[in-house]
Amino acid sequence: MPKDRSPTRIQKKNRAAILEAALDVFSTHGFRGSTVDQIAKAAGLSKPNLLYYFPSKEAIFNELMAELLGTWLDPLRALDPEGEPLEEILAYVQRKLQMSRDFPRESRLYANEIVQGAPRLHEVIAGDLSDLVEEKAQLLQSWMDAGKINRAHPKHLLFSIWSLTQHYADFDVQVRTLMGEEDPFDAAPEYLETLYRRMLTPKG
Amino acid sequence: MPKDRSPTRIQKKNRAAILEAALDVFSTHGFRGSTVDQIAKAAGLSKPNLLYYFPSKEAIFNELMAELLGTWLDPLRALDPEGEPLEEILAYVQRKLQMSRDFPRESRLYANEIVQGAPRLHEVIAGDLSDLVEEKAQLLQSWMDAGKINRAHPKHLLFSIWSLTQHYADFDVQVRTLMGEEDPFDAAPEYLETLYRRMLTPKG
DNA sequence: CGTGAGTTTGACCAGTTGGTCAAATCCCGT
DNA sequence: ACGGGATTTGACCAACTGGTCAAACTCACG
Q: Is the separation of the CB atoms in B178 and A133 below 8 Å?
């Protein structure tokens, strides 16, 4: 294990390579389906060498998860109480969709965890995420009460946004296979914008 | 391996118990994350005894998958070209949602596979599923052309239905944690009905 | 250069896993 | 109750996996 002095050039490079490789491997095979050897090879290192930089397979996973969760919720946090309600929501949808396009591995890593019962994420979900959802659900509710957007169950509204946008990352293989030549991300932004505009625009 | 004569009472019982146990285990740990011992114990058998009924772990998985795929697409097949368009779609959404409530393990099993790149499912997706989607997408398109429902990309419309309904099974842990006491399936049917009604009801 | 910390690796270990096999036991029809 | 096929199991194996370790090598820096 490298000393926790300021990291050397080599340490920075290798730790980054390991995390990058681990993201690839974990997101496509899940935690238990991935082997340290696989990650090491993908990072261009030997297994003992990899374990020189991280104390264990789980440590790699945890660091990856922590890194991911830090940025994953940013789009939701950015939902602005001062903004124009409908436009705020539509912008949130588009930000989320863009994350599915730009960081599909992160999305799949998260999906893998949740589908399997989130054994390593329960605290975060019940903690930070829950607080944030509660806050934003109230914001949505207040917008509905003020007649700025149509009424709908606020939490289900949030779930639907997550579901629809992350679907393009998590089910990428299926979506692309069924779309053939057409790139799913060509029509997706417009489809989702239309969907939420029709759903939420107040009826005169 | 039992002879392929007509199965005995014991064979029927044990094969059923194994598949039931395997569905439980595979859907929560994925293929590689599950062990034969785990499945055997969950089925109340010893490992060698389980392997007396199925030649391998993969054979169990394949049988489970084949069984699943048979019924998974029935709701979509039932989309009736002769029916009232909007009501047909809304009924499809509700059927799909009900499947997420009644067979969440099947949904998660499928999700696990797709998220991990569908290594064992590519043919089915590119084959039967693709044909069915093509057919139903055209049906939706014809309903739009006839002005029976609002315009939207037909395939993305189908994706959104799958995504929204299966989310309640696949992300069950997250959804339930964030909803607290409230049962997600209380409000979900109405939320989805509202969503698709607002989206698809033709504007005068 | 040289020297010591930083880096890399081959060999190794213990636990797990999918799967086999012969022997033991159970069950059913006669 | 008994014979033979159906069922069950303990013991076992080879491959794999996460992780260790001491020895070797490399690099930055005086």
A: yes
